[in-house]
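Need tokens for this chain, all 230 residues.
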Amino acid sequence: MAKHGKKYNEAAKLINPETFYEPAEAIELVKKASTAKFDETVEVAVRLGVDPRKQDQAVRGVVVLPHGTGKTKRVLVFAKGDKAKEAEAAGADFVGDQDMINKIQQGWFDFDVCVATPDMMSEVGKLGRILGGKGLMPNPKAGTVTFDVAKAVQEIKAGKIEYRLDKAGQIHAPIGKVSFDADKLVDNFKALIDALNRAKPAAAKGVYLKNIAVSSTMGPGARVNAQTFR
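Here are the structure tokens for all 230 residues:
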């Protein structure tokens, strides 16, 4: 068992580990229990009733949080010609083709998300081992392989996040910062849960949303009443 400090233990007393809270109450408690000196991220963990070993029960997708994540992501776009100009006009931080591929091969990683036009993927694919290992490889399912680069960049800047089932059958995703108003965190929370419900695999049987918890980066978690969303 991990040992926690005095501040954490005091904060943990605010939250009853046996209680299933409604989203608004859980988020208020998580905000109160945040003791770090930095603006912590508020995170959601959802245990799903699916088998992560089976391809037909994989859960992966994207959702645009209505109030963003509180973090401005640096976007790199692999594109040429007019598409490169579109990406720049939409606010991409870095745009290029072979020049950017060369920089990455030399160890440059000053970006958070990659977008690529489909015609660039034959070249970008050569970075598969490098980008894939960091979770940065453009992917059609995440909306990051597209000719509509302007829309992709704008959505990422507006707060689009990707969620993906892990080997333990859980989804972990950020929904904002502790400094956000509680109402905004609740809106973001509901947007994420709605997206997960829409992404339910046809092969999933039984209870789909098994457990939901909200926590801050360094703080204790509060369990959410999952029945509200079933």
